[in-house]
Amino acid sequence: MSPYTRTGSRRRGLHRRRRGAIALLLAVPAAAVPYLLLTQDDSQAAKARPSAAAPYKWKNAQVVGGGYVSGLVFNQRERGLLYARTDMGGAYRWDVGAEKWIPLTDWLGEKDWNLLGIDSLATDPVDPDRLYLGAGTYTNDWAGNGAILRSTDRGRTFKRTELPFKLGGNEDGRGAGERLVVDPADHSNLLLGSRKNGLWRSTDYGATWRQVESFPVKGGAGSGAGISFVTYGPKGSDTVYAGVADKSTSLYRSTDSGATWRAVAGQPTGQLPQHGVVTGDGTLYVTYTDNLGPNGVTGGSVRKYTPSGGGWKDVSPSQGSYGFSGLAVDPRKPSTVMVTTLGRWYPEDEIYRTTDGGSTWKALADKSVRDASGAPYVGTHTGHWMTALAIDPFDSGHVLYGTGNGIWRSEDADAGTSHWTIGAKGLEETAILDAIAPPGGATVLTSMGDQGGFRHTDLTRVPPGRMRNPLMSNSTDIDYAASKPSVMARVGTGGKQDGAYSTDGGVTWRGFAAEPVADAHSGRIALAADGSTLVWTQSGQSPYRSTDKGATWSKVRGLGTGAEVVADRSSARTFYSLTGGTLYASTDGGATFTARATGLPADGRLKALPGRAGELWIAGGGKGLLHSTDGGGTFTRLTSVTSASAVGFGKAAPRASYQTLYLIGTVKDVTGVFRSTDKGATWTRVNDNAHQWGAIGSQGVVTGDPDTYGRVYIGTNGRGLQYGDPS
């Protein structure tokens, strides 16, 4: 899944880092720049304690999928019990009756954002109510340690065990696994293979863990990614295998339930194991690649190991400049095995199926019928990053596999011609970088990582496709003209152009004929209230303006590199920029900017209120929420708000004269999403502890609906666009 900062980074899954809290004051002469910072009086602050959470109903604006599903695991005992893990969006359980996925980890909040990358998942083969998640997104120094999230009610609630090391659910090799497994002979025992800290064991249902000292690999192995899978043999065999991402020695075996380990003799070298599955008769199948994946794979194989004298056999269904990753064995028919290719970009990745233990294989792609109506943007090709593959233990024809865009599902994968449909309903894993809700037009439009963005006219339906012309891979910002909301602009990267203009509310787009700096892209875009002027700050560049819909550009005077510009939502000639703690303003259509106030939060997010000239709000992080009614000449700090990550506006409440404020922040020691109908004098929390979605404050995307009172949209980094309505 994608990171995504507004600068348009292309590396998948690099979360937006928290903004710094230190204000940088520019050297602007005090005599030349009026500055005044006021605060509410104590009586008003005392009234501003947040009321109890208002009952809200939260849903996703549907895209269906949108991110990398890295693992799919069926419970072997109970029919229909199936789980999915993702690299940034947490874990899900399949609802058989509703035929959709139920998110299990939305309760993780800002402080626990790193746990939304699920490195591995295990469902108990003895007690189906037990579920274990190996949670942790990154192993970098700035990321926290991983944790085991353990549930005895199928993920409805969890207990947490902190690990003394990190997990890497969004790092290279995340499609391998599973690294976390339950002993079928004694389900109180679990094994966890880590990326940099060896093999670990729990004997008390995951409550406590100790390192397995006898396991030979204690670090990251040759690749730095450590253990790639752990799998038990048939119940009663005491056999366990562990695959290690090392091209010299990549497979170890224990015949005493993990007490001692030895390298498997005759094993392949020069490749990295992705998945390993043991059949009922003790045969082991392993898929291999030449790199960790999911990118960079140019070789690999499928191997079969028969411990009872048969040794190793290469049973690869094909050869080429690609590897093999997804692996599933039919528990009902152990000679039936399915594998997927990885990195076969042309003509497309393939799914193979054998019914004779790998002697012969059938390629399914050309002999399948695919219906993508459940997520039209995906198209009908097989997909990419196909590393998760699962056969239903109770139905040989029921097969699912994950892709970088979600899940494909078949009920007749064992037929001559198989039929596949989108199997990701309820699973939403996009990273939202901006969202706009223009009055009177489309309900909401998004800028997002990996998918570019969508135009939603009905929140209960999947859009017909991504916004096109250009079709961006990443879109970092989108804006509309407040007085002419059908006029819009968006910027990003990965399309034929890096910016585009619309005059029909985003139905159709036309790419900018020119760009300010030819080799730059992404960044932020601001559109004048009447749509006459664009101001674009490309990533790493100074702002430029255009008055001819992007045909020509001129450099803005008075602002430096990286200055983000906001349009006044009423006065067409006025723009603002909050840079380094100084508020700058332009009254000549963005041509020149001069400083108006200093001492403001250096990392603040500036917003202009629609319909009122000169009315500004700053979400100032630890410096709270600030308000100006004079175009930034003076600001008032609302002392009721302890910290403010983002602020947005929506339709005024009945009998209210001022637009509703929405806040991601902290009010009187309570952190969450808040609503105010009285200009911030009082606040009501509208989310709850079950709906927190990780790093929404760092993401900083919140906007109310201008046509529907109470509706608010929240952008997440891995759980798509959430919207809430009063229930």
Topology:
Elements: E1 37-39, H1 42-47, E2 56-60, E3 69-74, E4 82-86, E5 91-95, E6 100-103, E7 118-123, E8 131-135, E9 147-151, E10 159-162, E11 180-182, E12 190-193, E13 199-202, E14 210-211, E15 227-232, E16 240-244, E17 251-254, E18 262-263, E19 272-278, E20 284-289, E21 300-306, E22 311-314, E23 323-329, E24 337-342, E25 351-354, E26 362-363, E27 368-371, E28 389-391, E29 399-403, E30 406-410, E31 418-422, E32 432-436, E33 444-448, E34 455-456, E35 474-481, E36 484-493, E37 499-502, E38 510-511, E39 524-527, E40 534-537, E41 543-546, E42 554-555, E43 565-567, E44 575-579, E45 582-586, E46 594-597, E47 605-608, E48 616-619, E49 625-628, E50 635-638, E51 641-650, E52 660-667, E53 670-676, E54 684-685, H2 696-699, E55 702-704, E56 712-715, E57 721-726
Parallel strand pairs: 1-50, 27-31
Antiparallel strand pairs: 2-57, 3-4, 4-5, 5-6, 7-8, 8-9, 9-10, 11-12, 12-13, 13-14, 15-16, 16-17, 17-18, 19-20, 20-21, 21-22, 23-24, 24-25, 25-26, 28-29, 29-30, 30-31, 32-33, 33-34, 35-36, 36-37, 37-38, 39-40, 40-41, 41-42, 43-44, 44-45, 45-46, 47-48, 48-49, 49-50, 51-52, 52-53, 53-54, 55-56, ...
As residue ranges, the low-confidence spans are 2-48
How far apart lie the N and C ends? Answer: 32 Å
Give me the side-by-side strand order of the main sheet. Answer: 1-50-49-48-47
Radius of gyration equals 27 Å
User: How many alpha or pi helices?
Assistant: 2
